Amino acid sequence: MLVVIGVAAYLIQVDRTITETFEGRRWSVPAQVFAQPLELHQGARISRTELQAELQRLGYHQDANLPTPGTFKTRNQELQIYLRAFHFMERARQSQRLDIQFRNNQISSISNNQGDVPLIRLDPATIGSFFPSHGEDRLILTPESVPPLLSEGLKAVEDRKFDQHVGFSLRGMFRALLVNLRAGERQQGGSTLTQQLVKSYFLDNRRTIERKLKEVAMAVILELRFTKEDLLTAYINEIFLGQNGNRAIHGFGLGAQFYFNKPISELDASEIATMISIIRGPSYYNPFRHPKRALERRDRILNTFHRDGLIDKQGLDFALAQQLNVVASPTSGGAYYPAFMDKVRAELKDQYDIAALSSKGLRIFTTIKPRVQEATQQAVSNTLLQIEQDRRIETGVLQAAALVADTQTGEILALVGGRKGRVDGFNRALNAQRPVGSLIKPIIFLAAIESGMTLADLIVDEPITIQPQHGEPWSPKNFDNKYRGELPLIRALAESLNLATVNLGTQIGLATIQERFKSFVGHKPNNRYPSFFLGAESLPPIKMLELYGNFASGGFRTPPKAVIAVLDEFGTPITHHPFELKQTIQPDHAATINRALEIVMAKGTGRSSPFSKSGVAGKTGTSNDNRDSWFAGFDNRHVSVVWVGRDDNAITGLTGSSGALRIWNAMARSQTIDPLVHMQSEDLVEIEFMTGMRATQNCADVVLVPVADSYNLPIKPGCNIRTTVGDRIKRWFGN
User: What CA–CA distance (Å, rounded) separates 478 from 499?
Assistant: First the structure.
């Protein structure tokens, strides 16, 4: 009697446990995260080839008949698309056919069956989801969204008696035992779909009689508690289909994106068969590593489909003739950007707990642009390899981080945390605290401008020793151990001269400069000593993006952001994340420092860039002993920060120009430079770069700088500078 009571109590406990767990996971819909959609309009600077590549990135495939959404076709300078339906933040858009014409690598017209279309957005890429525990990722499918061939095919291949049994099949278990004994190895499983679901939800992989009995008991309980449709749908969403680094691919919804870069609704018979073939052994039948095995098993499954009447003979012959057609590699199927997702999580953690993100079906719209992200990642990976080869550095030891943001909103368009983009790991863009070197110097020169100095004013580049109240004396040096005496501010910044910078910083005052730093990034620096003047301050690349955003925006602090809005499962906005805006620099001062950073590119440490005279501003940075290589730069649209170094903090031998700037050059090649727009000013004057004296192109190497009291500048000897009556009147009356 006690045994019966104990067994009954155990079964009641098991019943409660598995029922609650199954209910919780069955209705837990992870938040889906979307990238920015590509906007198309007349005049958009995109070629037919580029748009075709973008469609292929989204999983559209070429078909001359445009039979279903997710297809396109091309002809000469025309591209026709059958757009998928999508529910955007503002409203839903139905699927529709578009005709797009191109001329001179631009869109010349867009039309549909109702006439001209002024603006259309492609469906955005899904870049991730929030699902709890163990790195599991999945896209939940409802019963209505499961293709009939998938559900019927699973039963035909994995569990022919699924609709009749009560959770287990003695005949199936005995048949599998005989097959395996004859083969001398495990060739066939005897578990039903329900038993496989139990193993995935509740049990480990130990093969013991006790575990098998528990599996059968749990399967029976599930069968008694839930409908066959519930169980099959749960299986379709739960089954393990592969591994991508730390990311476990679960369910056919995500599997379709991972292996084919398509929604499940667009898979054909051969692709569904390939997915089912992977179930038996995601490693053994991995189509990336073992395509021959996967193809052979897929063909056997297709024949099973035909035998059971799921496809006809014509469909079988067509499917057998297809290649596997999986994406090129495990990192190219679907859009998965773990480094950017870290930033999304960081922004959402204060407003949503993990339970809400993993179960409420939220839809999160973000700032990332896949075209920019992919180009940035490629620039990082390829250029690091080139640098290692050029400098005979061991392959794989260099690491990097790179970020691109909109200059006016701070929206992050690309975030690269390392040289391997789609693998989870240490996120250097957010978490690598590294000395920023000369990237800090523009703050000092800005403070000088704000104090009333001009870019033509003279400072000294000469040895200096600073004796702190506590500690050893500090005697900084220039990179080349030389000093140049008197020179204008613009040359000191352009050539990144340490001694001139420290002398200037000492003149302005450390407290003043560090207060300006705080206004740009929101916190005080950790280093309260004069070595701060030369960038002895460790910050992650994303903080440097925030700092340089103050310059790029024309004098406003716009902290980098990744999330635009969050919608609930019904499409109703829950939270909106507007960009922050706070003025930190007066417009004329911002224009002056930005002009100085343009000259840094044209005449100074950035001059090796092929884009140095294309209307971009920037600054290189190098930490002590060449351990860290930095570059921060911007044009009219984008502000970017790049860091290169080693995770073990060893010497790289790279300067800002020979490391990070090379990566930025590769990034710039992938997108059109939008030159900086200058404020209109009557106080622009040509001065000699070396001395700061007034000069002309006919007699000196000159730069054009804003100088408030330009006519008081001395004229370079030998330069004949003509003045007009208006000039003389301005001089007499002090401008």
Answer: 6
Q: Which helix (H) or strand (E) holds 479?
A: none
Q: In Å, how far are 36, 376, 541 from 404, measured between CA atoms?
A: 14, 8, 11
- Catalytic-labelled residue, pool 129, 151, 358, 438: 438
Query: What average pLDDT does this structure show over 523-548?
Result: 97
| pTM, two decimal places | 0.86
Residue ranges of domains in the chain, CATH in brackets: 37-123 (3.30.2060.10), 148-238+265-320 (1.10.3810.10), 684-732 (no CATH)
Q: What confidence category does residue 431 fall into, taking pLDDT thresholds of 50, 70 and 90?
A: very high
Concerning whether 438 is annotated as a catalytic residue, the answer is yes
Candidate list 136, 158, 215, 686, residue with the active-site label = 158
Say how far apart CA 505 and CA 530 lie, in whole Å. 8
Please say if 20 is a catalytic residue: no
Residue 585 to residue 38: CA distance in whole angstroms: 33
Average pLDDT, the chain: 88
What pLDDT is recorded for position 707?
83
Cβ-based burial of 202 (10 A; exposed 0-12, middle 13-18, buried ≥19): middle
| Pairing assessment for the beta strands 629-634 and 638-645 based on DSSP bridges | antiparallel
Which pLDDT belongs to residue 718? 87
- Is residue 312 very low, low, confident or very high in pLDDT (cuts 50, 70, 90)? very high
Q: Would you place residue 8 in the very low, low, confident or very high pLDDT band (cuts 50, 70, 90)?
A: low
Please report the pLDDT score of residue 735 as a whole number: 37
- H helix runs in 27-68, sequence order: 48-57
Helices 209-225 and 2-26: crossing angle, nearest 10°?
Answer: 60
Q: What is the mean pLDDT of residues 714-728?
A: 70
Q: What's residue 135's pLDDT?
A: 61
Integer Cα distance of 572 and 135 in angstroms:
28
**Strands 684-688 and 702-706, sheet pairing:** antiparallel
Rounded Cα distance, 457 and 707, in Å: 9
Phi, psi dihedral angles at 661 (to 5 degrees)? -65, -35
DSSP-derived letter for residue 170 is H
